[in-house]
């Protein structure tokens, strides 16, 4: 079910509305998953950079790879 962040879920007769603590706990869970995903993607990109640079001996080519890595970080920053 897709819901906007502001939309409250519909309650049945036997359910209690969520408390403020429940809402905060849910937000913390969502933010921690987002942070974990961000860290994972960043580490993956850094490993790829190290791998690409290690494949070449030419300093200029290494700088070009590093430049594109930095550009990608800037462009795809969330």
Instruction: Spell out the helices and strands N to C.
Output: HH
Radius of gyration, in Å, reads 21 Å
Biggest sheet descriptor? none
Q: From the helix content, strand content and strand pairing, which structural class follows?
A: mainly alpha
Kindly state the percentage of residues in helix: 55-70%
Number of helices: 2
Amino-to-carboxy terminus distance = 24 Å
Q: Assign an overall shape.
A: rod-shaped
User: Please, what is the oligomeric state?
Assistant: single chain
Mean pLDDT, to the nearest integer, reads 76
Low-confidence stretches: none
Query: How many strands in all?
Result: 0
- Give the strand content: under 5%
What structural keywords apply?
78 residues, 67% helix, rod-shaped
Fold blueprint:
Elements: H1 20-54, H2 59-75
Helix pairs in contact: 1-2
Description:
The chain has 78 residues and is an all-alpha fold. Helices cover 67% and strands 0% of the residues. It has two helices and no strands. Residues 1-24 are annotated as: Disordered. Residues 1-12 have a biased composition (Basic and acidic residues). The chain crosses the membrane at residues 59-76.
Brief rundown of the structure:
With about 80 residues, the chain is mainly α. About 65% of the residues lie in helices and about 0% in strands. Keywords: Membrane, Transmembrane, Transmembrane helix.
């Amino acid at each position: 079910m897709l819901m906007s962040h502001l939309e409250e879920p519909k309650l049945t007769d036997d359910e209690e509305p969520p408390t403020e603590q429940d809402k905060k706990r849910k937000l913390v869970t969502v933010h921690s998953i987002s942070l974990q995903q961000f860290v994972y993607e960043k580490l993956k990109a850094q490993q790829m950079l190290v791998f690409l640079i290690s494949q070449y001996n030419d300093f200029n080519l290494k700088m070009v790879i590093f430049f594109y890595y930095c550009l990608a970080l800037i462009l795809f920053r969330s």
